[in-house]
Amino acid sequence: MTALHDLSITELARKLRTKVVSAVELAQHSMDRIEEHGKLGAFLATDTLETLRQAQAADERIAAGDDSLLAGIPVAHKDIFVTKAFASTAGSKMLQDYRSPFDATVVAKLAQAGMVTVGKVNCDEFAMGSSNENSAYRPVKNPWDVSRVPGGSSGGSAVAVAARIVPASTGTDTGGSIRQPASFCGVTGIKPTYGRASRYGMIAFASSLDQAGPMARSAEDCALLLSAMCGPDPDRDSTSLDMPPEDFTRKLDESIEGLRIGLPKEFFGEGLGDDVRRAIEEALEQFVKLGAKIVDVTLPRTQLAIPVYYIIAPAEASSNLARFDGVKYGHRAKDYVDLLDMYKKTRAQGFGDEVKRRIMIGTYVLSHGYYDAYYLQAQKIRRMIADDFQQAFKECDVIAGPVAPSVAWHLGAHGSDPLADYLADIFTLPGSLAGLPGMSIPCGFGAAGMPVGMQLLGNYFGEAKLLNAAHRFQQATDFHLRKPEGAL
Ligand code: GLN
């Protein structure tokens, strides 16, 4: 018999309906696995009583005939989302033990659908990072090889799914933080079009880029969560799109005969590891077998995405993080002589190195005299990058490529060289700057047997098409079902 933690959400939903298992048992099973996999460092907060209370409520809903497929399904939330019931730290000492008076919209929506929160998961501090090593609490380890990073910033979210602790989790993606850890850990993740999911209650990093999305084993499971997470939130997030909620599962089974998959030549050039290239090329052959057509496209400003992103994101971060001043919430320095001294000490103690680095870069590029030279130029190139995608989408329906140039690297490999992390973001940043939907699907294995993810990027509001392509691929392959030995 398949273990409970290997079942898909649809299969679990069926077992819940037929009373083979209860939501309380599922929640308990997840919590047991959190303990068993404690060494991976994925979870920052749990609360057994709260989780069991939510599970009991889900069992009652199911008994009363509730037909939400998500009712009673365990979920873990990235610690960037604020929650009433669990502390919300954003991976930072600045918010150690912080309790929010409300739930983030995405958390509330998944709770309304009946999902049971088993805990909050680790991430890079304020979602700044690519390896989860910037968490102020502890690094997260990749279950495929615990000497390697899980990716970031949603590393805990990816590991919780990869280690079969939960069937699904939430993540956030500002410049790749859902796609890249999904790729490194062999799970599926999708970042929707900017504005699809409300940012209310998502601790802000770079507001014009931040988006929430689900991580799960399959595209089908991601589609279920994404449908529940998205929708307008006009009173709370002015950038949330005025589009009715969509059922992203509706196109999953459609044929992809004739689907035009664009390959940007810039995504396959120098710097891409041979192992990753091979896995992507083999996966593309599978897409061709399914009827897709491969076309060559170009995204000529791909290289510029790195400097542009690392100007815009820190600029927005420096402004967003100004609120952590020791007055309103979070950490406050104990000893100080006056208000200014309190601000300085609070921020010096509360923020980690990478966050400070970004605040300094952001403040610099926004300062008088440099604003025009850096920030304004970056904004202009950002628009050109978005335009390049529109040119490419004249030739193709979806764009495919690698998520990252390599498989997950070893913990500590980038040492104190933040640029090494920044450069590894090259393939995820362009889609983020353009606000496009993007996903990562497990598509093979590279060096040292580590998972490789294929990135699929769609045009605005093309989530259903992406999920359709990913689902058809997953029906024909089993990469998404493979699991690290430690997760047995
Ligand atoms: N790695 C990128 C960064 O460090 C992206 C992070 C994210 O998407 N939150 O900014």
Describe the structure.
The protein is globular, with a radius of gyration of 21 Å. The protein has helices at 9-17, 23-36, 48-63, 105-112, 155-162, 179-185, 219-229, 274-289, 305-320, 339-350, 353-366, 371-392, 418-423, 429-434, 463-476; strands at residues 43-45, 74-78, 116-121, 168-173, 188-191, 211-216, 260-264, 293-297, 398-402, 438-445, 451-458. The protein is of the alpha/beta class. The model has no long low-confidence stretch (mean pLDDT 97). The longest helix is centred in the C-terminal third of the chain and has 22 residues, at 371-392. The protein is built from 15 helices and 11 strands. Helix 4 links the parallel strand 2 (74-78) and strand 3. The chain has a domain at 4-259 and 438-487: Alpha-Beta Complex (Amidase signature (AS) enzymes), CATH 3.90.1300. The structure holds glutamine (GLN). Residues 127-130, 153, 173-177, 205, 313, 425 line the site of glutamine (GLN).
